[in-house]
Amino acid sequence: MPVSLRRGRVTAIGSRLPELVRLEVDGIACIAYPRLTGPVEEGDDVLVNVQARELELGSGGFDVLYANLTRGLELPAEEAAHVTKLPYTPLQAAARHVEEDGLLAKALDSMPVVCCTLHSQLAPVCAGIGHGRRIAYVQLPGGALPVSLSDAVRALKDAGLLEVAIAAGSCLDGDVQAVTAASALAWAAAAGFEAVVCAIGPGIVGTGSRLGHGGLAAAHAANVAAALDGRAILVARVSSADARERHLGVSHHTRSALDLCLGEVTVAWPAGLHAPDWLEPRADVDVTGWQEACAGLPLSHMGRGPAGEPDFFAAAFAAGRLAGGRSA
Description:
The chain is an alpha/beta fold. It has two domains: 5-68, CATH 2.40.50; 99-323. The chain is built from ten helices and 17 strands. The chain has an eight-stranded parallel beta sheet, with helices on both faces. The chain has a five-stranded mixed barrel with strand order 1-2-3-5-4. The chain has a two-stranded antiparallel ribbon with strand order 6-7. Strand 1 and strand 2 (21-25) form a beta hairpin. The radius of gyration is 20 Å and the shape is globular. The model has no long low-confidence stretch (mean pLDDT 93).
């Protein structure tokens, strides 16, 4: 299981944010996480991880900066941090966690927890909950681990539809970090948030099998929410355009996640859309106006937008609307 590294020089800086820099190394697209590997400038001598791009993975169209040899060595650890993300790997880094700094609620008191199998469901879910609610996002392992990779999280914050992003478990670089999904939900409840949306990061670990995919993180979130007296809502992954039979209609990802839900969970469903008999327990939700509510947000699923995959985004919006207390 080797790490594929290449040494190169930064030849261009594209966009720069405190948490994410898009750049080129020897003319090849690359991203950097400056809060993890330090600042980066044109001309820097760097090491980049090239493996995802060379394997032509769906989410691997760029390299990832691994170390900046010019200005990224001997970086100090975060002050007072001692809980480590990615422990005992070459990128282990200590960070403060919410368990160390804040109170954790003993129960969620029926707080809605929306559980997504894909990151692309996050934006329509938050749009469904709507403005005027304090919404927290919990990123779970199963896709990209850095929260800072997500353009959707930034767009939702700018739109006033999301307040805080929590990196749970092995996820990292959130606004705050949590050791577990359970403590992330308990912290959000104690902090006064009115709804939580749980999802994996951009991209998804997938093998084509029933149990070998990152979307099962939704079942974990639903089980934790139910155990803590929250109101677990599962987002159905729906497609009318996917060429793969296992994802056409309601995806096998949804069915496998639902099969692993041990506590009470409800699947949100757009009212008027035909649902398979096995999709239970289900709540039909009026999704009228979902396109207008999602306008201006980044909506993309497998390269298809709302016009190409209306049912996908409508189903996610339904889950948000149900969490917000509005249903058919």
